Amino acid sequence: MNIASFIDHTLLKPEATAEDVRALVEEAARLQTFSVCVSPSTLPVEVPEGLKVATVCGFPSGAHHSAIKAAEAADSAKRGADEVDMVINLAHACSNDFAAVEADIRAVREALPKNVLLKVILETAALSDEQITECCLAAERAGAEFVKTSTGFHPAGGASVHAVELMHKAVGGRLGIKASGGIRDFETAQKMIDAGASRLGCSASAAIIKGASK
């Protein structure tokens, strides 16, 4: 298994400079990760052929109005993003208003060109098992291509094997599953993949890939 091909090599620290982003791209190219994931304000990002560019939307709270998320996503696509990772409105999810969750996701999906992939960040550590499942199904109905565990910024925590297993049970085989948040070594990464993850969001990509070779 080529674990590098699972990885979105990620830099979302708000203080990240243009020089930091260039260093990220150089490291991603050397490691041969699937993509780099950067903040929308850093776009466009020049990358070598074969390296995808992902960005985030409504990040990290998800509390932005759907129209703002849609506009942000559309602008990112125009600036060269191949993939957009949007954060759901957690208040809707925690209130069990899954129609509103679906509508929020659909607004972003419809604002994006068809060739730009949409991942939906659920912030699973803040949700119940039932809410995770229902949000996955809402993302599928809204036309998203992936569901994703976490922003990595929420105090409730990041990815867990249990959450990935729930997501895989809900939509695995129909939608991709991205595990993100707190994945810092190969052993954890492997557990996420075994649970059903088809993509990993990581900033410790070099350590993970080095661990895979041991």
From TrEMBL:
Pathway annotation from the record: Carbohydrate degradation; 2-deoxy-D-ribose 1-phosphate degradation; D-glyceraldehyde 3-phosphate and acetaldehyde from 2-deoxy-alpha-D-ribose 1-phosphate: step 2/2
UniProt keyword terms in alphabetical order: Cytoplasm, Lyase, Schiff base
Catalytic activity entry: 2-deoxy-D-ribose 5-phosphate = D-glyceraldehyde 3-phosphate + acetaldehyde
Compartment(s): Cytoplasm
Residues annotated as catalytic: D85, K148, K178
Main location, first listed in the record: cytoplasm
Any Pfam family matching the protein: DeoC
GO cellular component, one term: cytoplasm
Keyword Nucleotide-binding: no
UniProt EC number: 4.1.2.4
A GO MF term: deoxyribose-phosphate aldolase activity
Family per record: Belongs to the DeoC/FbaB aldolase family. DeoC type 1 subfamily.
Function: Catalyzes a reversible aldol reaction between acetaldehyde and D-glyceraldehyde 3-phosphate to generate 2-deoxy-D-ribose 5-phosphate.
Protein known as: Deoxyribose-phosphate aldolase
Organism expressing this protein natively: Corynebacterium spheniscorum
